[in-house]
What we know:
Radius of gyration: 18 Å
Oligomer: single chain
Strand content: 5-15%
Order of helices and strands: EHEHEHEHEHEHEHH
Bound molecules: NADPH dihydro-nicotinamide-adenine-dinucleotide phosphate
Largest sheet: 7 strands, parallel
Strand order of the largest sheet: 3-2-1-4-5-6-7
Shape: globular
Mean pLDDT: 96
CATH topology: Rossmann fold
Distance between the termini: 49 Å
CATH superfamily: NAD(P)-binding Rossmann-like Domain
Amino acid sequence: xKTLKDRVIVITGASSGIGEAMAKVxxxxxxxxxxxxxxxxxxxLLTGEIRAQGGQAAYCxxxxxxxxxxxxxxxTAVREFGRLDVxxxxxxxxxxxxxxxxxxxxxxxxxxxxxxxxxxxxxxxxPYLQRxxxxxVGISSVAGLHGLPGRTGYSASxxxxxxxxxxxxxxxxxxxxxVMIACPGFTASNVRFSALTADGSQQGETPRDESxxxxxxxxxxxxxxxxxxxxxxxxxEAEGRATHFVKKFAxxxxxxxxxxxxxxxxxxxxx
Length: 271
Ligand code: NDP
């Protein structure tokens, strides 16, 4: 696969942030995008916008925690465009609370969306992707490279995604399937507003300066290049690369750095 042109790409979590940006960027590059999320109205608007600009898009309302809905998302892609080349498991939620305080239900919800949502979509997409020797992309996080304090359930869900996807890659070694794990750092989006607090309610605000982060469009372009080059791991910015390399040689130092950075957030649960 030299470019994304004409590739049929399913994107979960396409109603906002990184997923929405991937839909726009890849459609503009000539891909046929199939958008999934719970907010059907937003998907409808985005599909209309892409089509108005000459792109090809379809959508399907999906809650990724529900296997039958994930099956319908994949079948929508095959029905509309006849094949499937790329599945991007991007739908995700975050949290902010230390483990001492957090309701266990919060961790279950994180695993349901981030981990099980990925598993559910992969289950139904796999036969089609084996046929096209296509790609599965898991949108993990720097928190999937090293534990992020205040985000036990988030880091755990991203590590679980990695374990699942790496195993899927090896099982399909002889079938030509490409599996990529992408690890963005802080990216301006809705994720911190919707993050769950200790009692499971949404945070409703961001503790960080969103204007100093990568944009969702930058992340979308880097992930797109990673798909074309069939990379295994897609790191984005200095934070991600530093985390990946320092972890190998000085993990204790990285622990202290992560603690320091997260404890400096306003109202940090680490204080
Ligand atoms: P947003 O909150 O902007 O987008 C999250 C998307 O996930 C929305 O489209 C939302 O749609 C969808 N979603 C949430 N729950 C479900 C569900 N049960 N079923 C289907 N879709 C769901 O966040 P981002 O764009 O930032 O997040 C995208 C991915 O990037 C996530 O996996 C996140 O962990 C990861 N990431 C983000 C970083 C950041 O700093 N922004 C950093 C590193 C990784 P809807 O509510 O309509 O269902």
